[in-house]
Amino acid sequence: MQVFVDANGGRRVIARLVSLTVASGLMVFAAVVGGTLLEVW
Amino acid sequence: MRRAPRLHWISILLGLLVLMSVVSFHAYTAIRPESVQHAREHRELPERTLALAFHGGPDPKWTPRLLDVLREVDVKATFFVIGTQVTRNPEVTRRIADEGHQIAIDGFRAEGDHGNPLNLAFAQAALADVLGAHTPLVGAPAEVDSGDRDHQDIGTLVRMSLRHGGGVVRLHDDGSIGADITRELAKAPGYRFVTVTEDRLVEATATERFTGAVTTWSQRNGGIVLMLLGTAIAIAALLGILRTLMQLGLAHTDRRLRRESEQSPPPWITPPVSVIIPAYNEAVNIAATVRSIAANNHCADVEVIVVDDGSTDGTGDRAEELGLPGVTVIRQANQGKPAALNTGIRKAKHDVLVLLDGDTIFEPDTIGELVQPFADAQIGAVSGNAKVGNRQGLLGRWQHLEYCAGSNLDRQILHALRCIPTVPGAIGAFRKAALTDVGGVSEHTLAEDTDLTMAVTRAGWRVAYRQQAKAWTEAPSTIRGLFQQRYRWSYGTFQAMWKHRGALLENGPMGRFGLIYLFAFHLLLPLLAPVMDLYVMYGFLVADAPLAAIVWTVFLLIQTASAGYALRLDGESLKPLWAYPLQQIVYRQLMYAVVIQSLITALHGTQLRWMSVRRTGLLTDAPGGTVHVT
């Protein structure tokens, strides 16, 4: 078994969840802030 | 193979965009430009009616005094606020609203700059954060100028304010005079006071309040973010300077060692050698590789073992067809490079083993030079000098420069520190005893060469670098190929570092210097590099552009000089150096993308397998010119 390789897949699932949360969180953040500002109230 | 993770790139790009926006916004709010004049609409008020319109605030000192006077004389006024001032003085802004005065927007950074829609949006965001509301009244109508910016005499100011017998009077609340005129105007007989319009604040939505919180935070804390970025850059710069200092130290050591070696050259040794070539689908290159080994001028037996690791392109046949004496071809089912190497090591009959890849060309004296450090019984492994054989095009030149200025210079520094972490797969020699000590080549990492070298060092053997032993290797000729190769190297190096992390607590030089060196220059520096690019971009776009250009140029000059020095040490021409500054644009970003991708892959625990590089067989810069074997 190679170093770092996740044997049972649990870490991979958690990492994907974290990655997905961070990416979608940032996208929502950018969309809300950018969208609100560009609407010019 | 599972697909390598990719989602993090969205996060990184968006994260950098957000960071850039925060620091740029902070810089934007720090400047207060001149006021902007507008042609304003006339607002009809009944005769002898005054609407006091205050501009330039809210101000932390003068606005509260004005509010006291307004309360005292029982007059409601209109405050045309500036967005950045609202964020700076939230309490004063809240007091204006709480005491029933009308709040309108005059601008974001300066009086009257609301004409720019983004400024208006920022100003509304500031109000949304502080008051939880935004205002429909933007920009003052045509006003009667009180003259408070030009005159001091109260009598004059009152006369000027009342010269039309009513209307919207332009005043300012960012100085002491605003409160004084108000007190006098309130005494004027027969006048009544109103706000500019009847418009009242409109409650902000949740997204407006959130956006307001974000812009307010950016205005207040952008400086801290900039300071953190500056710290990251300082660390990166420090690492860069440290490396330059190491190079200077190396130059000194190198000169001393050369002098010593010229005075009393060590005896030339000629041990018999077994050369092991693991090969998987290397049909294009293998004949040239084996021929170059067979053409060696080493004065002892040189046994060549080609281990065909289940190739499907007839690699083994090509090697056999050559019919060269002393060349054995072993075929096995595909098991990976470490297994192929272990097969070769088991079959080798000599005590000194030379390991090389199936795409490498040796010079006639390479083997002889490579084994010289074994004169010292403590030496367990020797790294040769891998050179790029295809230097055509920008990508080839960049890799050539990187091999000299990066890998080989690193190796010289680490040689001086006695902790070379990698004897490259392209050219390396090992004592069989050292390999036996560590149980052969392990399959635990994708960088089996680094893993093996670290293991040999930890087993108590020393590793040497022989600059004169040159091997020419084919570098990837496409960006994609280069990314895949470096991804494997970088990920494999991290695997090896993690596997041998215990060395940090051991007494040997591997832990003391080797791992720390790899951590600093192969992990930390590439991770900090994007921040440096961001900072330079910020400097160019937002802050002091000439200063950013000077700092960037000085760094580039230092790096180019260092690369030139590395080329000279390697006995190479300085001509390709012109391509070095261009590396800053694509190549460097590609290299840190590799490190980030490797790190994320490690965190995900994804299994990566060997990613083979497409071979062309064109090593035009290797001795002998084009070696195209088909």
Characterization of the model:
- The complex is a heterodimer of chains A (41) and B (630).
- Chain A is mainly alpha-helical and 41 residues long.
- Chain A has one helix at 10-38.
- The longest helix of chain A is centred in the middle third of the chain and has 29 residues, at 10-38.
- Chain B has 630 residues and is α/β, with parallel strands linked by helices.
- Helix content of chain B is 49%, strand content 14%.
- Chain B has helices spanning 8-29, 62-73, 83-88, 90-98, 117-131, 154-161, 177-187, 206-263, 286-294, 315-321, 337-347, 366-370, 393-416, 432-437, 448-458, 479-499, 509-541, 545-569, 587-604; strands spanning 49-55, 78-82, 102-107, 133-134, 144-145, 167-172, 192-194, 202-203, 273-279, 302-309, 327-332, 352-355, 360-362, 379-388, 428-431, 462-473.
- In chain B, the strands form three sheets. Chain B has an eight-stranded mixed β-sheet, sandwiched between helices. In chain B, strands 1, 2, 3, 5, 6 and 7 form a six-stranded parallel β-sheet that branches.
- The chains are: A mainly alpha (41), B alpha/beta (630).
- Chain A: Keywords: Membrane, Transmembrane, Transmembrane helix.
